[in-house]
Amino acid sequence: MTDAKKFPTINDKTALEEGDTFAPSFDAHGLLPAIVTAAETGEVLMFAYMNKEALARTIDTGQAHFWSRSRGKLWRKGETSGNTLRVIEICTDCDQDALWLKAEVAGAGGCCHTGRVSCFYRSVPFGEYAGKRLMMEAT
Amino acid sequence: MTDAKKFPTINDKTALEEGDTFAPSFDAHGLLPAIVTAAETGEVLMFAYMNKEALARTIDTGQAHFWSRSRGKLWRKGETSGNTLRVIEICTDCDQDALWLKAEVAGAGGCCHTGRVSCFYRSVPFGEYAGKRLMMEAT
């Protein structure tokens, strides 16, 4: 079992960025941002935060767990909806303060609580279209 | 010009999630997390935060801007390295507290300050491999 209390801290920049020790850097609130993409399509499905316990459980079980800031509780994705996330790969970024999870969605395949596959279903106009209304994605 | 002071706030959950008004929800520090993927490959390149000014400039110019928490300043990605990010699409998530940018990297094509294409170049072992050393990605 991964001990959530024992994730190491690395202060040396080179060791943190180039080494092979996993030393996740949690923010002042004890949270680490996590991006989830669909392993098959590469689409960004959702974005959420993990605390140490959520990360430890994700590592141990291969099922994505997060910390719900709004509900103030540990949360196994899909525990009520059935749309669990089976982790295919976890990557850490250069300074180890963000994670990227490639995952497969179980159940009906929707990752967003609105029932859509992805939470990112609206496009923000920019450049010459700046200030226009959001556009609903076709997906 | 997009006025960074005038991003609206929406409190009604349905309007926030299903409407076509862009009402980005900045956190207590005035920041909004932003995921950047390569428009061509779908690979997650980097993760950073925007404040209102960075978001307004990104929307106006189509060039990705962020807020550097470590340096405490607005930052146009690639302003020193030349590896600027030309925005192809900006998507907001269901509750409008995260963004996903699809972008093209200019210059040498590296998005990470280490020179790599992506910041996410190390894989975290999990499941039966939990606790093993980080693995460097082939890319």
Can you give a write-up of this model?
- The structure is a homodimer of 139-residue chains.
- With 139 residues, chain A is mainly beta.
- Chain A is 12% helix and 29% strand.
- Chain A has 2 helices and 8 strands.
- Chain A has helices at 13-18, 52-61, and strands at 32-38, 44-50, 65-68, 73-76, 85-92, 99-105, 122-123, 135-136.
- A 4-stranded mixed β-sheet of chain A has the order 2-1-6-5. Chain A has a two-stranded antiparallel sheet with strand order 3-4. Chain A has a two-stranded antiparallel sheet with strand order 7-8.
- In chain A, strand 5 (85-92) and strand 6 (99-105) form a beta hairpin.
- Chain A is globular.
- The mean pLDDT of chain A is 95.
- The interface between A and B is large, with 51 and 51 residues.
In short:
2 copies of one chain form a homodimer. By secondary structure, chain A is mostly beta strands.
What key phrases describe this protein's structure?
two-stranded antiparallel ribbon, 2 helices, 29% strand, 139 residues, mainly beta, 12% helix, homodimer, four-stranded mixed sheet
- Along the chain, the helix and strand elements of chain A come as HEEHEEEEEE
Write down the overall geometry of chain A: globular
Q: Report the sheet with the most strands of chain A, covering strand number, pairing sense and barrel closure.
A: 4 strands, mixed
* Overall pLDDT level of chain A: 95
Oligomer kind: homodimer
Helix content range of the residues of chain A, please?
10-25%
Radius of gyration of chain A: 17 Å
Number of helices of chain A: 2
| Biggest interface | A-B, 51 and 51 residues
Give the strand order of the largest sheet of chain A, numbering strands 1, 2, ... along the chain: 2-1-6-5
**Which strand-content bin applies to the residues of chain A?**
25-35%
Query: Between the first and last Cα atoms of chain A, what is the distance in angstroms?
Result: 39 Å
Poorly predicted runs of chain A? none
Q: Please state the structural category of chain A.
A: mainly beta
Q: In total, how many beta strands of chain A? A: 8
